[in-house]
Design a protein that fits this description.
The complex is a heterodimer.
Chain A: H1 18-36, E1 39-40, H2 41-47, H3 52-63, E2 81-82, H4 84-90, E3 92-93, E4 95-97, H5 109-121, H6 134-143, E5 152-153, H7 164-171, E6 174-181, E7 187-200, E8 203-210, E9 215-220, E10 224-233, E11 257-264, E12 277-282, E13 285-292, H8 295-303, E14 309-313, H9 315-331
Antiparallel strand pairs in A: 1-3, 2-4, 6-7, 6-10, 7-8, 8-9, 11-13, 11-14, 12-13
Helix pairs in contact in A: 2-3, 5-6
Chain B: H1 7-20, E1 25-26, H2 27-33, H3 46-65, E2 71-73, E3 86-88, H4 91-94, H5 104-115, H6 120-135, E4 147-150, H7 156-166, E5 169-175, E6 184-196, E7 199-206, E8 211-216, E9 225-231, H8 239-253, E10 255-260, H9 265-274, E11 283-286, H10 290-298, E12 304-308, H11 310-326
Antiparallel strand pairs in B: 1-3, 2-3, 5-6, 5-9, 6-7, 7-8, 10-11, 10-12
Helix pairs in contact in B: 5-6, 10-11
Chain lengths: ~350, ~325
């Protein structure tokens, strides 16, 4: 160890080669095709969330692979085989011969770790009676893995009291009303059609159609009070899966403030929820442009990493942040017990 | 398949050849019979033999990284070289055990769990697991579409540590201890990675200090690099659970007390997270790390007052000072 201290290790971590990813996918697709043949290319592709062309390529690759026969050449019984005409003419996969196991492969230790950590993290989200036993499910994943899951863990995100009725409204298809503290600090009553509950880290967000604003809005559940589940059924059939993961939709340009911030490269991930346009890096620093609804949001952003994120323009925003910081510094200088 | 066979065909065929062979295949047999090797292999050329043997070694590692167990059988008269070694994959260790079956509800839950990983290598692992679940052909029941949990903060540093963790190797990285001005280079063998209260922590064996240390990932200032040729064997302990328990204990012993202006953002959010204020109007906040709590409280400005400890107030004051200095000069 001592010899290598102070020297820069040469080996950088390499991402796994891409061919192996394709192999992993093929190993999962094959048992499905064996089980479900004949099946249309489009149905098989949509099961695995890949393009029809990717699925056709898998079949074409399988056409030419098999296990070595005695002669060293692929003999008929040692190959994957399909009905060629149905495949070429009708886009249907009909397997006529296969080699190797017909069952799904086991999980690797890391795959099992990803599933188990994900399950533990979301264990509070699914509180319904129908929820399958998590303990049982986790032990099944362990038994179905070739290696022991790694020491990677994400403890559960506890569901806050205020989010519980929200989750209930979504699963019972009902509307919601609540008082909401907006970013400017004023309380308003909102009536919404809830679509999806997003948990990011340990913050819970409601994605909902707001009847007051007549648009999709994101609400933090910790800014809600007096949450009441209405007896009215939901009236905006938005598919929850269609919502983007970006939480804060850029406000319309006429109402938002376009700001430029400068930050170190290592802090760029802090902008991931802001729909920011990230510029090129110069000497480890990058500039990013984003639209905020009001300056309150901008304070929150710079407070994430004091010193690492600096507002560059517009001037009045820079001034505002400077004055806010000045007042904050003065406030936290004084022991509150000595304050009159 | 007359043209240059791709790596995909080679690795896929290799796996199937090892699965089909009851007694295992020697390297010679693999090079001479498996698609992708036999087509490029010229047994009369030393150079070709070396190249093809090298790609076999790499493929073997890739296959093992997929979680596939390759067994080796040495001949009775084993000499030192690998010459007579036979390689095989036991189908029983390759496929899911027969008693591992999933209900439609479980599949739905597992799909949401897998999608919680948004970034980096764990996202890749989760997607692979997801494909295996899809391969079972079980239609998920869709009752869970109204929730979308996402694991946050998985960045390049966590990714690097997770890779080094699975290799049981040693990481070199720069770490900025709170209060220090410049980061210091550290060497440590990762033991566990946990996401606690929305932040990633690394438990590791610190080789320079010969002791276990906990690192906060957001204070790691470089992408960790694997120290070549150095391995650190770990015991099979559940380090992740131990670290979680330790952090929870630390937080329970260190309580900060703050006041929030009624009906302010601070009031709403701090009471939602830490519970209602006590009879003195004070919110009690358990904390494992005052610097982290200071980071969390800055955005509330003068809507919070720090009652105790005094050091927390100093830390917040310093943060505002930095913000003030970086934003003056244009007015």
């Amino acid at each position: 160890m001592n010899e290598s201290t102070g020297r820069s290790p040469r080996r950088q971590l390499n991402p796994r080669p891409q061919a192996t990813d394709v192999v992993a996918r093929m190993l999962a697709v094959v048992p499905f095709l064996i089980d479900n043949s004949p099946i249309t290319v489009s149905e098989a592709a949509s099961t695995f969330g890949i393009t029809e062309n990717d699925m056709r390529n898998i079949v074409r690759t399988l056409f030419v692979t098999g296990i070595p026969g005695d002669s060293g050449k692929g003999l008929h019984g040692d190959l994957f085989d399909f009905d060629f005409d149905t495949f070429e003419d009708d886009d249907i996969i009909e397997m006529t011969n296969h080699v190797g196991p017909a069952e799904t492969p086991r999980f690797s230790g890391r795959e099992a770790a990803a599933l188990i950590a994900g399950l533990q993290y979301m264990s509070d989200v699914v509180r319904d009676e129908e929820k399958p036993s998590l303990e049982g499910l986790i032990s099944k994943i362990r038994r179905g893995a070739t290696g022991s899951p790694e020491n990677i863990s994400v403890p559960r995100a506890p569901i806050p009291d205020r989010a519980e009725p929200v989750a209930g409204a979504i699963s019972h298809d009902l509307q919601l009303e609540f008082d909401y503290l907006n970013a400017e600090g004023s309380l308003e009553t909102r009536s919404v059609c809830p679509i999806r509950l997003d948990v990011v880290g340990n913050t819970w967000y409601l994605r909902a159609y707001c009847h007051v604003r007549q648009n999709m809005r994101t609400f933090r559940t910790d800014r809600m009070r007096n949450v009441v589940v209405s007896s009215e059924h939901r009236d905006h059939p938005v598919d929850p899966a269609s919502l983007p993961d970006t939480l804060f939709d850029a406000p319309a340009t006429d109402s938002g403030i376009v700001v430029t911030v400068e930050l170190s490269e290592s802090a760029v991930s802090l902008l991931s929820d802001y729909n920011a346009i990230i510029g090129k890096s110069t000497r480890g620093a990058v500039r990013a442009e984003l639209t905020v609804a009001h300056l309150g949001n901008l304070r929150r952003l710079v407070a994430l990493a004091p010193g690492a994120i600096r507002v560059v323009s517009p001037d009045y925003a820079v001034t505002e942040i400077g004055q806010w910081a000045d007042r904050g510094a003065a406030w936290h200088k004084i022991d509150p017990l000595t304050r009159a | 398949m007359a043209e240059e066979p791709s790596k995909v065909i080679r690795q896929f065929s290799l796996i199937h050849a090892m699965l089909a062979s009851r007694f295992g295949l020697t390297v010679d047999e693999i090079l001479n019979t498996v698609d992708g090797y036999r087509d490029t292999f010229d047994p009369y050329s030393e150079k070709s033999l070396a190249a093809v043997t090298k790609s076999f070694e790499r493929d073997k590692k890739d296959v093992r990284d997929l979680g596939i167990v390759i067994q080796t059988r040495s001949p009775a008269d084993a000499s030192n070289d690998n010459h007579g070694v036979r390689y095989l994959i036991d189908p029983a260790t390759y496929v899911l055990p027969a008693d591992v079956e999933f209900s439609r509800g479980e599949i739905a839950l597992l799909q949401v769990a897998a999608r919680a990983w948004q970034q980096g290598s764990m996202n890749k692992e989760a997607l692979r697991a997801l494909n295996k679940l899809r391969s079972l052909g079980i239609e998920p029941d869709s009752s869970l579409t109204g929730v979308r949990p996402r694991i946050s903060g998985w960045n390049g540093a966590v990714d690097g540590f997770s890779e080094i963790l699975s290799e049981a190797a040693v990481a070199e990285f720069d770490y900025l201890k709170p209060g220090d001005i410049t980061p210091a280079t550290r060497h440590a063998a990762p033991l566990a990675l946990i996401d606690w209260n929305g932040l990633w922590y690394l438990l590791a064996w610190d080789l320079d200090r010969n002791a276990e240390r906990t690192f906060l990932i957001s204070r790691v200032t470089t992408v960790p690099r694997m120290v070549p040729g150095l391995r650190h064997e770990r015991s099979t302990e559940d380090f992740a659970s131990r670290l979680t328990a330790e952090l929870e204990e630390l937080a329970a012993e260190n309580i900060a007390r703050v006041r929030a202006v009624a009906d302010s953002d601070a009031d709403f959010r701090l009471t939602a997270k830490y519970g209602a204020a006590d009879a003195h109007g004070e919110i009690c906040i358990p904390t494992a790390d005052l610097d982290l709590l200071a980071d969390e409280l800055v955005e509330f400005g003068w809507d919070v007052e720090i009652i105790a400890p005094e050091h927390l107030r100093t830390l917040i004051h310093k943060r505002f000072d930095v913000l003030r200095v970086t934003h003056e000069g244009t007015s």
